[in-house]
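input
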Amino acid sequence: MRRTLGTFFIALFIAAGAHAQNTDESLDIFGYFQNSYEHQLDSDIGDEERTFMLQQLNLFFQQDISPQWRAFVNFEFINSFASQRQWGTANLEEAWVRYRPNHYLNLKLGLQIPIFNNLNEIKNRTPLLPYVIRPIMYETSFSQFIDVTIAVPYRTFVQAYGFAPIGRAKLDYAAYLGNSPNINSDVTIGTTGRDTSTTFLVGGRFGVRYRELKAGVSGTFDRVNEATITRDRQPGIVPEDAKIYQLDRVRFGADLSYRVGPVVWESEIVFVDYENPEESIGTDSEFMYGTLGLQATDRLFVYGSGWLTEFNGIVAFPNQIVIGIVAEDNSASLDVASIGAAYTINDRVVIKGQIAEVEVSGKSHRGTEKVETFNTTFEYIATAVSVRF
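output
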């Protein structure tokens, strides 16, 4: 795997250089990466840990094919990716072509990150964000132990977006279509990466921008094939006789950003609702964050941020969501309060620091009668350097 990836990228750069020499349109190659040092203090759920890590790297290839057409490719590597050592992951995040007939309309065709709330589309631009650890459902380095795609859509294939001027304000709009979450990952039953259902992801965002104000609402609808577990099963373990349901899933989001002089406010909220096969049983999730920042100097930005995350009746694992039939007995919350700073060395290098207090709590079923509750709090300290190259 490692040799294959190396050969691929060598061939890609050779082809890019040859292409740039033989065409009038230049191929832009650029990217972002963030290296971090993270220190988790002792807690009830684990011992003290500290580590250096290449948290994330995104490599972009962009070419303007004509005044109206642009092609774009985005490779993402997270958690010190090394295939030989089975560290981290590597993903092809985007490969699209964009048609722009005028200033008010864009049409993207191909694999892409959809517009949803404020942060989704720019979450991989690490030097542009002040955080070491981003709000939880945008933190792709956590995707190996929590399904970050529950709250926001990460992939779509057709998207129309743009803006319409209304006096001194602008009305933003976006509408997109993509696969459902029911993607085959088992090569023994067919081609992987294909949708195994006849449903689609449908979504969009409408918003307004006026001077330093940006606000909007977002939404998606899709249908998810998920396993359900009953009262006498331990959450997180899917039995062979678990029922599979196709559940309607609706996401609703809202975002608000505002700047007054050196003071910046940024916030988002997302509600996720699953149609549970059992009446009167709720399975849903909520995600929200708010950040208040101050541009203390031309180079120094300081902030305080709070995040709230709740799972009700949902046990979240990567590529799998288990719906608990007895939802009121299975819940979890993750609350984070943090302060941080970002110092801009120059246009390409940003140094960051962040301190957070994390509280994890909830309750879960164990057997037919017993319900166990848990609650733990720990501190998390992180520093990072973000670079645009």
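quick obs: Helices lie at 2-21.
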